[in-house]
Amino acid sequence: MRIAVGVAVAAVVVAGATTAYALTSGPGATADEPTLVAADTGDVTLAVAATGTLAPARTRSLSFGTSAEVTAVNVRPGDVVRAGDVLAEVDATDAQETVDKAAEDLATAQEDLSTASSTADTDTGTETGCATAAGYATGGTTPTPAPSTGGGPVPAVTVTVTETVTVYVTVPASPSASTSPSPSTTATPAPSTTPSRPSTGPSTGGSGPSTNGGSTNGGTTNGGTTNGGTTNGGTDGGTGGGSTCGGGTDGGPTGGSTGRAGGDAVYNAQKKVTSARLALDEAEEALAGAVIKAPVGGRILSVAGGIGSSAGAGSTFITLGDVGGMEVRAEFPEADAGRLVVGQTASVTLADRPGETFPATVTQVDPVGTATDGMVTYGTLITFDTVPEDVLAGQHAQATVTVSAVSGVLRVPASVVHDVADGAGTVTVRVDGVDERRAVRVGLIGDAYAEIVSGLTTGETVVAS
């Protein structure tokens, strides 16, 4: 009985196997067919991609111009503001007091300058109206020399009188030791605007040499051209020289010192005015800096404090982003970065807007890479052609840059081209149901298609393995 049962079980197993074979290998079963594609004409593009974050193209760091307590903060991060909006303020009491004090100092300095200028003008005016040569009348055209005290010949004296009432006396070298003057050549003075004091009598100090003031008309060296004033020398005596306009030995130095003192006073007063004006400008600038206004429209990125906090002059209190120029900051690996060029077309996709693609352009590629964990990347800025509305600084984005492209060329799927090297490759072509291997010349191999330069024609069927 046991043998009969075993034979029956074996028969059932064989019958089942026979039935399964018949079902799987019947006349309707066929082997997997390869995919066939036709060569066509179109575009071939090659692009590289990287993830990045959105950031304003320009940011403004805004600060107060004076250190004080914050009294108003009118914005918070994320707010959109317009140019000229008041963003924050600090207590301006101290700044206003500084402006008032600087204005008072400037007014005082200007008064001092006016006084110094008036004094200098008065000192200058006392030296006018006394320039007629000694021993000559003011009304005639021919000067009359003073009487001679000796009989010998003396050098001729040439007198020049200008309209500015200044007299120059020139004495040529004397041919003899005699000091008695002889009648000189006629000199015609120009009309004087101020008559000089008439001579009260002949000079008595004419016997000494000319270098000590011995000329009868009142010494030529100590009372004349060397030390100043000559016109009134004859009136006051030869030995003393002229005195009214700073003449003689004592007149010249006194007049010079007075002029320098007046000039120094005006110069110093002018310096004080300039310094006071600069101080006032700085104080007014600090007062204006008690209020922060938006220089351009944009979005508030950060605020450093609140009401009651202390703000330092020059320290960033508000950061403003120009959202009108939003861009993507992405890091590309060095293998791809070498293909990037400013001006290349790009596209951006945002995580919160699936299915939308925004055109953009490469505007910057960093010349120096950054190494992180052995990988070198290069920062790249990609600017939207038109910035999407309501985008947020810092949100993630996917940037794709087209690094190469050709249009209107014969192409096949890049996956059907094999053994590519030095611009050559192979494809499998089906002709009349028969597959054959064919060599082709390859141009740009893009992300989806490969350009076929030669070896195929439009419409030929290529086998995709």
From TrEMBL:
| Bias kind Gly residues: ranges | 215-262
Which residues belong to any copy of the CusB-like beta-barrel domain?
A: 328-368
Q: Which SUPFAM superfamilies match?
A: HlyD-like secretion proteins (SSF111369)
So which domain of life are we looking at? Bacteria
Where is the segment annotated Disordered? 134-155, 173-263
What start and end residues bound the annotated signal peptide?
1-22
Query: Where are its TM segments located?
Result: none
Bias category Low complexity: which stretches?
Answer: 134-143, 173-202
Major place of localization?
other
| Record localization | Cell envelope
Q: Which UniProt keywords apply?
A: Coiled coil, Signal
Has the keyword Coiled coil been applied to this entry?
Answer: yes
Q: Name one GO cellular component term.
A: cell envelope
Matches recorded under Pfam families: Beta-barrel_RND_2
- The protein in question is named HlyD family secretion protein
Source organism per entry reads Catenuloplanes atrovinosus
